[in-house]
Amino acid sequence: MTSTELPVRPAAPVRAARPSRGPGRPRRAARPEGNLTLGESRLARGLALAVLAVLALAWLLPMAWALLTAFKSEQDASDPGQWFLPRHGFTLHGFSTVWERGDLPLWMLNSFLVSAAVTVITVLSSAMAGYAFSRTVFAGRRWLFALTVAAVLVPPQLLIVPWFRQMLTLHLVDTYAAVILPQTVAPVMVFILKKHFDSLPRELEEAARIDGAGHWRIFWSVLLPLSRPMLAAVAIFVFIGAWNNFLWPFVSTSDPGLMTLPVGITSVKDAYGIQYAQTMASAVLAALPLVVVFVFFQRHIVKSVATTGLGGQ
Amino acid sequence: MSSPHASPRTGAPSARRLLPPGLLFALPFLVLFALFMVWPLVQGLWMSLTDTSLSAHAPSFVGLDNFTEALGDAEMWRSLGHTVWFTALSTVPLVAVALGMALLVHTGLPGQWVWRLAFFAPYLLPVGVVSLLWIWLYQPDLGLLNHLLEVAGLGPVSWLSDESVAMWAIVLTTLWWTVGFNFLLYLAALQAIPDHLYEAAAIDGAGAWRRLWSITLPQLSRITGVITVLQILASLKVFDQVYLLTKGGPNNSTRPVIEYMYDVGFTGYRLGYASAVSYVFFALVLIASAAQYAALRRREK
Amino acid sequence: MTGIPAPVGPPAPSRRRVLTAALASGAAVLGAGALSGCGSAQAADASTVRLWDLFSGADGGLLNDMVRAARPGMPGTRIERTVLEWGTPYYTKLAMASAGGRGPDMAISHMSRLAGYAPTGLLDPWDLDVLAEYGITEDAFTDAVWSRTQFEGHTYAIPLDTHPFIVFYHPEPAREAGLLTRDGALDTDAFSSPGQFLAAGRELAKASGKQGIAFGYVTDTAQGWRLFYGLYRQTGGAFRLPEGGPAEVDVDRMAEVIAFMAKIVDGRVNPRRLDYASAIAAFTNRQTAMILSGEWELGTFRTADKNVGAAPFPTVFGTPAVYADSHSFVLPHHPDPDPERRRRTHQAVAALLKAGQIWATAGHIPAYGPVTRTSAYAGLQPQSHYAKAQDHVVLDPSVWFAGAGSDFQNAMSQVLQQALLDGLAPDRAARAMVRRLNTFLSKPSPA
User: Fold this and answer.
1) For the domain B73-300, what is the CATH superfamily, name and number?
2) C-alpha pair distances (Å), A152 with each of A5, A9, A17, A313, B281
3) Across the interface, which of B21, B139, B147 has its CB nearest the CB of A136?
4) CB-based contact (8 Å) between B29 and chain A?
5) Most buried among A71, A313, B207, C135, by the most CB within 10 A?
6) Do C42 and A257 touch (CB under 8 A)?
7) Mean pLDDT by 10 residues, chain A (313 residues)
8) What's the maximum distance between 2 C-alpha atoms anywhere in chain C?
9) A272, C38: Cβ pair inside 8 Å?
């Protein structure tokens, strides 16, 4: 699951230029009820609510259980006799131990550095390329774009062995560059952004060009501001993908000082053996950053999923 | 409408005219693309024709030996089978459960944000967190699942160490983790179904079930096709959660082909052979993509 | 200028500021990232020796103690440990790090893995002269172990310990069964043939009131092999594995050993279907009077029975041989190692070896001779009772695919499980093992 392939969504060719579904603009359901109602049947509503509640409970339970364990003492966590409420009360000991003794803060920093770098590079280069394919003409443009779209079919898993070999050649194994660079190639984002730029009306640019603006001005001052939501969606997606990426950071780093969060918490073992409360504490801490991101950017994330998943407007 | 030409009258004349501005714009991406997509693909192909190794010895050309070995390698086929088996097991629930969730949530029952959060939150977790969570859940003596089974009067299950159960355990974890994405896609699609279709049906006296069957589901058939395709392609590439939950065990009974490639290349040092295996895998992905593309195309005719 | 779509999305300012800040920091990161073609900051600290190992749990704690105890022996140097997951993932990561040239300064490796590791060029040899300066010389180690450290005339591993597969017993039932000598040690003569071994098991079962000897092997990836190979080498049979195959082994003796193993876990005198953990539980809960186990479980057993006894694995088939492995220190390859760093690493190893007494408390036999010859060591019970096993240790065959955590051990153990648990006939099991051996041999060595 990385941004270079969207939780893999190469079905874009299918959606190339389809008109939106159905005649007329679909009315976004402004009222709380969707257009699929259950009618007046109290039984139906009750039943549906019950099913939903059970599902939601089942879905929340693992996280709740982990959270509960993280706040227990080690003794209580490994006591098969008690399941929910710990005999010795709740404690932050698991968290403090994990934070102080291990490398978790370092891994968090690494994750942040890597994800931020990947996001910036990917969004910038993809936006520029999308603009180039959409608004400019140069020799080989169509051919290069077709190549880009074809590359969407290439799964990153295919490339990890050559990438590693490449990093060996470049003497970059166990460096930040090795982790970051391969993740910045996101043909699918180029495709999405190109389509997006295609859909923007040209009048504004025409006006700017008449005023004497060159490509860079038009790109930076006209099109980008117009594209803020789309760019935000892409950036968020890329960031989440990079943050959660496991395979390549796992392969490219053996030095624990360079590991990103997902790799570190699963590779490096506590010198003191399996400590359940601490393990759960590290899991909770590792989950926090993106949960925070979600809380702040909730609408954008949901929108970006829908947007990038459905291939743009 | 003037065409978006790189018109000579704009911008200062400069030596950068050697490259058309468009190409300049695309250059960062193209450089990265060439370095980290094209070069590795070519090098991977080259490596698959040699006996490149992680160790220090110089590689020598072996022609198609790696490929013949891969095609005759029982373990490779077995791991390919595991990948396909995983895909088969996981795709249906991941589509059906997502659909069910989306339908239920879309009816507008109270507590909207609770449902959305509950179903989508796991998707935000990195696989490392998910695996730690579920290893703990699956723990035979202390885990929640066996405790629940015990409460229900059933015996404990060795979720991750019993060959007959391990793959199901992985599928369950994957379902919990990724259904949220499909759920959101379905929700968006449901919201886009025009109301007038329902209004017309209601006027015709169609009940809730009729409306579901005759309007909603047909309207969703396209997005279902897309979701299924995406899901299958994603499942074929599975590695992370299998590796973290069971390391491909017990006894390599859950090892997917990507992990086999990793084992052969990095644990076994045989990078050349691993490249060959990865190209066999690539062929599988291409075939699957082509087949599904054709199927979707035909459907839309 | 009509038709300009209104800027969509939520009100700009706060988001824009966030995005700009993100962009700015991202740009800063880019710059940093471009400059850091180097690795993490830890690599730069010259007085730190980085050690990778796979010791968690009690062993991990002991190694920390050893590191502390070693400080006087290496002034100005700090050892920084990283603990990775035991088994194949550890060796994979170590190899990949070594290939990249930025691996740790030294690492723990099972000696049994060396045959596959040393020829790959991913290890650097130790400088014996420098080690001698710090007091470590070849004659401080037993031949059985030292011979395994060599490859093409160089020393690629410095042994920390040997950890053999031995027997533990509860003294009371053993005494009652008449299996102890006058000074309280196990009378290994009473186990010196298959028949006597099984008879001793019966006596132990009677004396304990429950069962005699526990052996955990079900679903285990190594236990079956450990017991088998030690016993097989006791028969004196050959186990030559020439490159490219076929294996030169004595199938009849293999079958004999397998038959004996199956008789041990008969299900009446001794339990039949124990896995690793339940065997330990059976012994600690006194369901059995004896257990066949690696010495590394000493801590667990001693907690349950502070008088627990131990002895080298008895010589059942004639030639003394005890299956073991050895933890050793290796030098991951660096293309351009800093001589000062290397020197510190040698010094650190020497200091750690001399602190081996601490390591011994876990049950391991320190490889550094002078430690085992101290009275402090002789005072360790029951370690001193099985210390002499290190003279007869046999490690895995010296071939690239063998070693701790290897597929090979797993494949062998699987066949053995079929023989012990599922009733596969011994001669068929032996032939199955040979077939798998030949499959391994037919694959090209990665070196």
Assistant:
1) MetI-like (1.10.3720.10)
2) 7, 8, 18, 19, 16
3) B21
4) yes
5) A71
6) yes
7) 39 36 40 54 82 91 88 76 73 83 87 94 92 86 90 88 91 90 92 87 82 80 83 87 92 89 82 72 87 77 63 33
8) 108
9) no
